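Protein modeling request. Please complete all fields; requests missing the sequence field cannot be processed.
Requester role: graduate student
Desired output: 3D structure, token encoding
Chains: 1
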Amino acid sequence: MRVLVTGGAGFIGSKLVEKLVELGYDVTIVDNFSSGSRKNLTQVKDKIKIAEMDITSNEVCNFIKDKDVIFHLAAVPDPRLCDEHIEETFKSNVDGTFNILFSSLKNGVKKVIFMSSAHLYGEPQYLPIDENHPITVYNYYTLSKRIGEVLCDFFIRKFNLNVIYFRLFNAFGPRQRPNFFIPSIITQALKNKKIEIWSDKPTRDFIYIDDVVEALIKAIDSDFVGGPINLGYGREIRVGNIARLIASQLNVELCVLNKEVTGPLRMLCDNTKAKKVLGWEPKVDFEEGLRRTVEWYRDNFNNY
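Delivered output (304 residues):
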């Protein structure tokens, strides 16, 4: 089976590509390397085809024309960057998604798998959060992701395009960019020999990268069409407890500044739907995933 992964040099994309290669898929990636890195592809670079281009390019259609499955992961992924680079955000996250869907339609692609975000739930009205929870658009990132979902729904209804899309909670693991919470804490500890966090009170639902990749691959053979499907572990963890675990593993001091933070105070995923339609179950518990992640950053810190 011929598979194309947009954003294949990124955190999630590169891990997905490695697994697809391991399973024997014929893999092509499209990436402009604005945030992804060729270092992430070191283990598979001789086994895949790499197209360095933007997903809004007309040339993308040429790489889609013989593909069976498209994983559309390319995006400006950081809400703060989206607010700072509005035009780039909409070009990538909206125009790029339309281009992928339209090109897939023209070329008879069998399935498109799109990654949206649990940021759309905003401050939760109830926990755990299922797919029926109200959504809210409160920044340029959530706006762009919501439009991406609307585009998916449109192509499903209008053209019967086989699309499945996820709302991802907090993924983590090796190679994640250091501006996300867990790698920011680890790199802070390794660089400064101490950790400072604004508050220890917020909770999040963290899911290890290997479990994310497994869900994406199971989507290939799922009969489900549409979305959203929540993708999270189903466990609520305080960020203060995460910082304490990292401080303990790296033997550094933790300082809680007790400052006010933005964003939801609590997040917890109801992943019942993912289990039902994919036959998927998260396997890597948080503590084990964190141990692997800390170990990777410690071993690769000088090169990262």
